[in-house]
Design a protein that fits this description.
- The chain is of the alpha+beta class.
- The protein has four domains: 3-50, Dna Ligase, domain 1 (2-Layer Sandwich), CATH 3.30.1490; 63-197, no CATH class; 218-309, Pleckstrin-homology domain (PH domain)/Phosphotyrosine-binding domain (PTB) (PH-domain like, Roll); 313-377, Orthogonal Bundle (DNA Binding (I), subunit A), CATH 1.10.30.
- It is 42% helix and 20% strand.
- It has 13 helices and 14 strands.
- The chain has an eight-stranded mixed sheet with strand order 8-7-6-5-11-10-9-12.
- 29% of the residues are buried.
- The structure holds zinc ion.
- Residues 335, 337-338, 340, 366-367, 369-370 line the site of zinc ion (ZN).
- Zinc ion binds at residues 335, 337-338, 340, 366-367, 369-370.
Length: 378
């Protein structure tokens, strides 16, 4: 039966069936606020009223949703989902209720004291054993913490509250080994970088090498390689004091006054230092923080050398939380190169400087090791 249709601006159309009306609405030919009439109707009705609303799709409650996300991550990470689901989510047991509650509470990354107390009460009332129940949830807890660390690296900062939340989870879930070490090295590194950006130097080291002069203080000491055209020239120790960079090695040793530094750059583990006499290439574990220390010392003495830190690391700060979450789940909480799930970082596949965007398609998860190797190649 023919439908008469009228747009808000008065334009009239006709359609031969309700399906045609729907198609016209769908492709935009017909305005959503149009009116409709057909034979037998007393008056014109809003076109939308021809399509009674579909019942809203039932959304799983937030606790189940969080549990499903956690389950999905576990499956991709190679943990048996069936076993995990049986243990944690399917059986109507204490473990089931506990895991659901926990996953929901951890969704915001923290476990409030009141939430923790509620969990303890749940276990006590059911006569369960706290340690056993908590031990079952270690894989979930570890992945939540690794995600928090990767976020913090991307943001370049970690609030005291976020740090407390991570430490509380490490303690609560009795986490040890790899994850504990990762937390214990990553948090100070993030804190140091954030402080240096704000011109807060770390306390000077207490070591006093023989060559040190009075009034001079050491800010970092690293094992390093000196390279030339990619080849190792020597292996030595790289020092930064408040007045110079000192590379002590059997070959190629150098003492470079901070005031002569023109440029300092880091790319992954590579540190490139240019002074009035030329350019030197070093490789060390903490190239990024070392450059940040040099930059901070130069600013403290009002030097205006062009000192830059690794651009690819700066770019991470502009990746939105939504994009990070989507990438985290898509990549299964693991490095896309080597499948490792430790020391994960968000990486731009095409660097922003080369036209890459902060989109899900251009971001991937890499472990720190693979990310450094990638930087070496660029
Ligand atoms: Zn890797």
């Amino acid at each position: 039966m023919t439908y008469m249709l009228q747009d808000p601006d008065g334009q009239r159309y006709s359609a031969e069936s309700l399906a045609d009306v729907a198609a016209a609405l769908g492709n935009g030919t017909l305005h959503g606020d149009s009116w409709a009439w057909q034979e037998g109707m007393v008056e014109w009705v809003p076109v939308k009223s021809l399509f009674p609303e579909q019942p809203a799709k039932i959304q799983p409650d937030p606790t189940m949703r969080a549990a499903m996300v956690a389950g999905g991550i576990l499956a991709k990470a190679g943990v048996s989902l069936a076993g995990f689901a049986t243990k944690c989510f399917r059986k109507v047991t204490l473990q089931n209720r506990f895991s659901k509650a926990l996953a929901a509470m951890l969704e915001d990354g923290k476990l409030e004291p009141a939430e923790l107390e509620a969990l303890r009460q749940m276990v006590a009332e059911a006569g369960g054993k706290w340690d056993e129940i908590v031990a079952e949830c270690q894989p979930v807890a570890e992945m939540f913490i690794r995600h928090q660390l990767a976020d913090a690296i991307a943001d370049g900062e970690l609030t005291t509250e976020e740090e407390k939340a991570i430490m509380a989870n490490v303690k609560l879930f009795n986490l040890d080994g790899d994850i504990k070490q990762e937390v214990n090295t990553t948090i100070p590194r993030i804190r140091l970088l954030a402080n240096l950006r704000e011109n807060r130097l770390p306390p000077a080291l207490t070591i006093k090498p023989v060559w040190i002069q009075s009034g001079e203080a050491v800010y970092t000491k690293q094992n390093a390689e000196l390279r030339s055209a990619g080849q190792i020239v020597s292996i030595g120790i790289f020092w930064v004091t408040n007045s110079r960079v000192e590379y002590v090695a059997p070959k190629g040793g150098a003492s470079i006054a901070l005031k002569n530094i023109r440029e300092a750059q880091s790319h992954g583990r590579q540190l490139i230092l240019t002074d009035t006499k030329g350019r030197r290439e070093f490789v060390m574990a903490e190239a990024e923080t070392t450059v940040a220390i040099i930059l901070c010392l130069l600013r403290a003495s009002n030097r205006t050398a062009s000192v830059t830190v690794d651009d690819s690391r700066q770019e991470r700060r502009r990746i939105s939380k939504e994009v990070r979450n989507a990438v985290w789940i898509r990549d299964g909480a693991a490095c896309v190169e080597c499948d490792s799930n430790i020391y994960l970082e968000f990486d731009h596949i095409i660097p922003v400087a080369k036209g890459g965007g902060n989109t899900v398609n251009n971001i991937q998860l890499l472990c720190r090791e693979c990310n450094s190797k990638k930087s070496d190649r660029i």
